[in-house]
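Re: Re: ligand-bound prediction request (bumping)

Still looking for help on this. To restate: I need the protein modeled with zinc ion bound, output as structure tokens. Inputs repeated here so nobody has to scroll up.
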Amino acid sequence: MKVISPAIIVTMNAKYEILRDHSLLISKNRIVSIEKTSALESKAKEFGWELFQFPDLILIPGFVQTHIHLCQTLFRGLADDLELLDWLQLKIMPYEFAHNKESMKYSALLGISELIRCGTTTILDIGSLNHSDVIFEQLQITGMRAFHGKAMMDINTLYSKLSEPTKDAIRTTEELAKEFHNKADERIKYAFSPRFILSCSDELMKTTKELMNEFPGTLFHTHASENRIELENVRNRFGKDNIEVFEELEILDDKSCIAHCIWLNDKEINLMKHREARVLHCPSSNLKLASGIAKIPRYLNEGISVSLGADGAPCNNFLDIFIEMRMASLIQKPFYGQEVMNAKQVFELSTYGGAKALHLEKEIGSIEVGKKADLVLLEVNNIHNALIFDEDKIYSTIVYTCDHTNVNSVMIDGRWVYLNREYTTLDVELVKERAREELKKLLNRVN
Ligand SMILES: [Zn+2]
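Reply:
Sorry for the wait, this slipped through. Here it is.
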């Protein structure tokens, strides 16, 4: 049993309660009680429970990032100032193809280290064609909560080496789902991941959706409507736009987690709404690849699920949710007015909203009795932080003035993975050193 006593708890429960002088009691991986600090601390002493006192820190739910590419972390800084299709063709796809198990391992570990330090406790991650088993292993070892799936591609006009026959894509996907879905006390789950419509045959898309039905609790993770040239290519092949094609293929529903959705037409927006499909919004990546700005306030007004993700390290170049929250808020204001995407709303998209997008809202996304203990402690006393953080300013303090340097501790599934600014499951100096070595070897394999 563990007792955590912070200064303030930002619960993100249905009433958006902010609690002072309250502590959490955690048994194994769940929050079993929220009580007055004095009462829980004396019980902790009486029963010999572990007591973690943070009298100056703010306790918030762990952040959920719904679109990440751990397999690309090694390529940070190697593909700057390109638009999407060149970025894929000239850089990212050849690099991904050159991965071996060791380079994939350190790419994943580098990404997970950064995500944890930024307070991210759950991710929806898309892999490459190969070595997804390595990513699953590292997610298990480091304690991250994650959906992951291998990228499926049976057509690749950009870089033909990075594709495989339809039946091989299906077979390896099924094997991975059997082996890893619901692993580690259900902390690890499978996401079926056709990369994007242009890299997939109709047969691959439809068969994947059928296969997914055999694995309850999995998701369908893909990219769509990111770039205008992509859009033209989709129209040339299908005579219609991305989401309309998904609808025709009968793959669109509330399990569809679709990254970007920048250039949706009115019909597509309607389809997203009525099928309850999820928009995974990656504002930094959308700007850096010159892709565009998704009409997020409109989607939210329509009641469409929107959550946030950093995308991959080479198109951002951070994996930091604080940067994504800030971007998501600020980029809309010139178009929709100063009041849209306010701090509270954006904080919700990256906590409870992210959990809901992944159908995990009964387990994570808020601090409530019965939920899994995915928690972040923020130390808000840097020179860049607001001097006053009254309750009505707390979301603004977190979203507009915090960054990764404010994260003091992180718990996932009841286990400290970062405590008082020290990793407990990762040797980051070793990860950095080995990642550098593996990148050098990988670049030799590309050339
Ligand atoms: Zn992506």
